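Hi all, a correction to my earlier message: I attached the wrong file for 2-deoxy-D-gluconate 3-dehydrogenase. Here's the right sequence:
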Amino acid sequence: MSHSDFAPDPLFDLSKKVFIVAGGSGGLGKGLVQALYERGARLAVCDLDEKSLATLSQSFSGILTAVADICDEASMDQIVQQTLTQFGRLDGGINAAGIIRPAAAFELDVDALRMSFEVNVVGAFNFSRAIARRLPKAGGRIVHIASVSSTVANVGYAAYASSKSALSHMVRVLAREWASSNILVNAIGPSMFNAGMAVNAVADPTVSQQALSVIPMGRFGQPEDLSGMAITLLSQAGSYITGQTIYVDGGRTLV
Ligand SMILES: NC(=O)c1ccc[n+]([C@@H]2O[C@H](COP(=O)([O-])OP(=O)(O)OC[C@H]3O[C@@H](n4cnc5c(N)ncnc54)[C@H](O)[C@@H]3O)[C@@H](O)[C@H]2O)c1
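and the right structure:
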């Protein structure tokens, strides 16, 4: 037997599958788009950021892009409809749209708290339900990017952490409600990654030294570190996983 005797692994195959990626032009979102695209998935990508969506559509030919606010239920229904029209099927979605509003509790503007729940929880709900309603009888997959903050009580993160914790718990409820339709709902919880909303923190020597001191692997995540778990949860490999937040965190949640 040699390596050429092995066929491409059907366990992780995404070719011809159709997924919607929300927040797909952000730092982690772009990495997810690339990972899924390289494995043959057909993608519809929505985000608020028109400029970076335009750049994305130049880099990945054949993807559908749409400027859409995840907080707006009708916009989520619309992107689902556009995806079905363009690709003729839908297998699920991955949501990397999110916001962070760090502030010590005494300084936290309650509007920042409300906005965090609006995007990170209500938006995630809209995304999930719009997709789940239109999945085929065979079911499908929904994955959200939560955070280690779903479980770690980082100081200054009252808005972000409570919304990510709510997201992780909502995933459990949706997973239970939709399990009998074979709609599997999960989340991935990254620690600090050198991408998107964390690039400034990573570049700041004081913040980054403190952050690294609680990551046992001693390095920040890179966008490609998320690919394996995203592919697993969207492919046959994840066929019996639902309701979980799986931490991809270099050991951050062990500390
Ligand atoms: N970067 C990290 O270290 C890290 C760690 C843990 C979790 N996360 C989570 O990963 C996800 C992606 O974060 P990122 O680091 O790529 O940040 P990012 O800011 O680069 O990406 C977030 C994307 O979401 C989009 N977005 C924001 N509000 C939206 C809305 N209402 N509708 C549609 N799109 C909207 C933004 O335009 C942006 O493109 C977020 O949920 C974040 O909380 C990031």
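Sorry for the mix-up. Residues 110-134 form the longest helix (25 residues).
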